[in-house]
Write a structure and sequence with these properties.
Blueprint lengths: L1 H16 L8 H36 L4 H28 L2 H6 L4 H26 L12 H16 L4 H15 L2 H22 L1
Helix pairs in contact: 1-2, 1-5, 1-6, 2-3, 5-6, 6-7, 6-8, 7-8
């Protein structure tokens, strides 16, 4: 299951590397996606380090009054948790290039390439069907990363028979890492409406 999550994240990054949306040179795009993933995680680690430093300074500067001390300690705990999560992901991601070269990790490479190629091949149809449930918006009005998360989730459901709950959860997790709170809510809502509309059409 973890391998498939890695493959989905790499597929998303492959989509982001391709400007003309054609399915050629996906192997090269995969290498670029690995570089992009490591860069993203390093930036997140730097942000967590800044948050930690701010919390530590706030703790030192506080007069340790009961209410203020509790607030600063909560801030520090949240920053520590965030830093730990980023460190864990950074450690794992730095292993991706090595793992992908190993024979027993070819499935990750294949899963990522299959998913990205499926999105490239079906993009006009995907966009039209997603647009149909956007409720006054168009897919192209969303940030590029949100568009690709939605496309990838629909391809997972339709082309790879991924359970809808899994596809939505994975899309939300990707949005948590690469989008913002508004993007996460939009993606979650659009996918739920898409699944409802698809179910009604099939019945």
């Amino acid at each position: 299951m973890q391998n498939r999550s890695i493959a989905r994240e790499l597929a998303l990054l492959i989509l982001g590397q391709k400007a003309d949306r054609t399915p050629s040179s996906c192997e090269q795009l995969l290498a670029q996606a690995l570089t992009s993933l490591n860069s993203h995680l390093r930036e997140a680690l730097d942000q967590s380090a800044d948050q930690l430093q701010q919390a530590q300074q706030a703790l030192l500067d506080s007069e340790l009054s009961e209410g203020e001390n509790d607030r600063v300690r909560q801030h520090l705990n949240r920053s520590l948790e965030s830093a730990e999560q980023v460190l864990n992901r950074l450690s794992a991601s730095l292993e991706f290039p090595r793992l992908l070269l190993l024979a027993d990790q070819q499935d990750i490479r294949l899963w990522a390439l299959e998913r990205s190629k499926a999105v490239f091949a079906a993009q006009p149809s995907l966009d039209s069907r997603i647009d149909a449930v956007m409720e006054g918006w168009r897919l192209t009005r969303l940030p590029r990363i949100d568009q690709d998360i939605l496309r990838l989730a629909v391809v997972e459901i339709e082309a790879f028979q991924t359970p809808t709950a899994v596809a939505i959860n994975e899309a939300v997790e990707l949005a948590n890492r690469y989008s913002d709170e508004a993007g996460r809510r939009k993606i979650n809502g659009v996918l739920r409406r898409y699944i409802t509309a698809s179910t009604e059409l099939a019945s």
